[in-house]
Design a protein that fits this description.
Layout: E1 3-8, H1 14-23, E2 28-31, H2 35-42, H3 53-61, E3 65-67, E4 76-81, H4 96-108, E5 114-117, H5 125-134, E6 146-149, E7 168-172, H6 175-186, E8 192-194, H7 198-229, H8 233-240, H9 264-274, H10 280-306, E9 315-319, H11 334-344, E10 348-352, E11 360-361, E12 364-365, H12 372-377, E13 381-384, H13 393-398, E14 403-405, E15 416-418
Parallel strand pairs: 1-2, 1-4, 2-3, 4-5, 5-6, 7-8, 9-10, 9-13, 13-14, 14-15
Antiparallel strand pairs: 6-7, 11-12
């Protein structure tokens, strides 16, 4: 059987892409190295928040094939690489999965195939890392096959923007390669944005998330400063946001998490260092954002002691421990560092999160409480880290338990203190 497209990596990006391709009438093969994933998917069980089981079942019924056998690549007109690019233990870019995927594609690469990288990489990586591995096939990029880069822009849990209505940036190794990619993505999205070169597209991805990281760091630093100056930053932000030009509203929080904000700026710093440059704003933003979980711990200590309770031995409950509201994803969540810091100071910590059945920090199981009302009634203080839609914010605010609100989400009351 031949396929219009094969998607390598069935995570939050690849699975959504495979389903959208199927919905658009394409014959799709999804490939993942984890057989547990492919078995779950083949039975209609999705592990990705943005792909409900019903949509997956519909895609399977429409012909979506999922498995671990990479030989299907030889029968695919388009191959899209959607594998993770995290940081290693030294917080340097880890593109080992991209290398492995490229080597796998090379073993099955057919002439005139379009290969697209969607994984986040530094400027130059598609040409310097991916292309040489693909050309081990004996085929040449731009001559025998097309090579392109199109950064993923999936925003998990976003109710307004999905793959279809989010503009798609595309670039090619040659103009012809870019044209091929533009035609392919034109079948899937409402707007395709072609750019002149691979490096420009790779940089666009890093720029998008570094912009967010820097602005989040700015308001996080303002939160610490305004606490010292006895200024209500939340009210100041609301006031500033009434300006119809020159200001974009960002809010402080307990730290950054997920697959993009803590990671992508590190790829930019790495690229800068490789050419002897510096990324001072990026480095400072990382420092500020990384300090926020410890600042939350300090605010908890001050708040609870001001109310007459010692932190050591105090019963604390964390409300929402995922990295983002309404998303069941714990990657890089600042909640882990906050739990670690509170426990180090002697607090007894539990959590409530309707999206998380079990949570481990440093290989230690953190007690989960299922009923938020019971948790608040039996603790000395709560910390709202994520304002999930399932939480009754009004009830949390009025129940009588002191709460540190790190998201500015709770209605004002005598029991609520803002970060």
């Amino acid at each position: 059987m031949t396929y219009d497209v094969a998607v390598i990596g069935l995570g939050y990006v690849g699975l959504a892409l495979a389903v959208e391709c199927t919905r658009s009438g394409l014959r799709v093969a999804g490939i993942d190295i984890d057989p547990r994933r492919t078995v779950a998917l083949s039975t209609g069980k999705s592990y990705v928040d943005d792909v409900p089981d019903a949509e997956l079942v519909a895609a399977l019924a429409a012909g979506l094939s999922v498995g671990t056998d990479a030989s299907v690549l030889a029968d695919s007109e388009v191959v899209v690489v959607c594998v993770p690019t995290p940081l290693d233990t030294e917080r340097c870019p880890d593109v080992s999965s991209v290398r492995e995927a490229a080597a796998t594609v090379a073993r099955h690469l057919r002439a005139d195939c379009l290969v697209v990288v969607e994984s986040t990489v530094w400027p130059g990586a598609t040409d310097q890392v991916v292309r040489p591995l693909l050309e081990r096939s004996g085929l040449r990029a731009g001559e025998d096959f097309a090579l392109a880069y199109s950064p993923e822009r999936v925003d998990p849990g976003n109710p307004h923007f999905c793959l279809r209505n989010t503009p798609k940036v595309v670039a090619g190794y040659t103009t012809r390669c870019r044209d091929r990619a533009e035609i392919f993505y034109g079948k899937l999205v409402d707007e395709v944005v072609p750019v002149s070169g691979l490096r420009e597209a790779e940089m666009a991805k890093l720029l998008e998330n570094t912009y967010r990281a820097v602005n989040i760091a700015l308001v996080n630093e303002m939160a610490v400063l305004c606490d010292t100056m006895d200024v209500d930053l939340w009210e100041s932000i609301t006031a500033a946001a009434t300006k119809p030009f020159g200001f974009e509203k960002f809010l402080p929080g307990p730290g950054v998490g997920g697959h993009c904000i803590p990671v992508d700026p590190e790829y930019l710093s790495y690229a800068a260092a490789e050419v002897g440059g510096r990324s001072r704003f990026v480095d400072l933003a990382r420092e500020v954002n990384a300090s926020m979980p410890d600042y939350v711990v300090e605010r908890v200590r001050r708040t609870i002691e001001r109310r007459g309770t010692a932190l050591r031995g105090a019963r604390l409950v964390l409300l929402g421990v995922t990295y983002k509201a309404d998303v069941a994803d714990l990657r890089e969540s600042p909640a882990a560092q906050i739990e670690r810091g509170l426990r180090r100071l002697g607090a007894i910590v539990s959590f409530v999160d309707p999206l998380v059945n079990a949570w481990r920090v440093d290989d230690r199981e953190i007690p989960r409480q299922r009923e938020i009302a019971v948790a608040l009634a039996s603790c000395d203080m709560a910390v709202l880290l994520q304002a999930h839609a399932a939480f009754d914010l009004e009830s949390i605010s009025r129940q009588g338990c002191p709460v540190l609100d790190t998201r500015g989400a709770l209605p004002a009351s005598d029991f609520v203190e803002l970060l």
